[in-house]
Specification:
Length: about 150
C-alpha cells in the first residue's frame, strides 16, 4: 500500500497488511481530521516508511503515547504514531491504493456528535477496545488478509 498528502509532497509506503482498521469518533480525531470521524488503519511501525517529504512532516504530541503527523505544506492529516506500542495509525483517506482490509469497527462512539450517525452495522465500542476486542479485530484482519479478502 502507499499514500500521500493532498499536495503530493509527502509520500509513504506500507510493506505489510494492516493489522486492523476502524473508525474513531473521539473529539481529538474529529478535530485532527476535520470531520465527524477518522477512518484509520493500524500497521506495525517497521512496515511503514516515508519515501518522500519527511522534512515536510509536522507533529503535534497529543499525549506521551500519541504523536499526530501532518504535511506542513498542504495541512493534510497523515498518520498518528502510537509510541508505546510501536504502531502507526494511517489516515485511510491518504491512501493512494486500497487498504489491505476494510474497516471493521467503530471506537469512541460515545463521542459521536449528534449531527452524525452510525448505520453500517459494524461493532461499536464506547471508548478504546478491550484487549480481547483488539485481539479479535487483529485475528479477523489476519484471516481476511490470508484469504485475500477485504471484508
Amino acid at each position: 500500500m502507499n499514500g500521500s498528502c493532498l499536495c503530493g509532497a509527502v509520500r509513504y509506503e506500507v510493506s505489510a497488511p494492516l493489522v486492523y482498521a476502524g473508525y474513531c469518533h473521539c473529539t481529538q480525531c474529529r478535530k485532527f481530521s476535520g470531520s465527524a470521524l477518522s477512518a484509520f488503519g493500524g500497521v506495525n511501525r517497521p512496515a511503514f516508511s516515508i519515501i518522500e517529504g519527511a522534512d515536510l512532516l509536522g507533529s503535534y504530541d497529543k499525549t506521551v503515547a500519541t504523536r499526530m503527523r501532518f504535511c506542513t505544506r498542504c495541512g493534510s492529516s497523515m498518520f498518528t504514531e502510537k509510541l508505546l506500542n510501536n504502531m502507526i495509525h494511517l489516515r485511510l483517506g491518504t491512501l493512494d491504493t486500497d487498504p489491505s482490509v476494510w474497516l471493521q469497527f467503530h471506537v469512541h462512539v460515545a463521542s459521536t456528535p449528534p449531527w452524525s450517525s452510525i448505520c453500517d452495522g459494524l461493532p461499536c465500542v464506547d471508548g478504546d477496545p478491550t484487549d480481547q476486542q483488539a485481539n479479535d479485530y487483529r485475528d479477523q484482519a489476519r484471516a481476511l488478509n490470508a484469504a485475500g479478502r477485504h471484508v
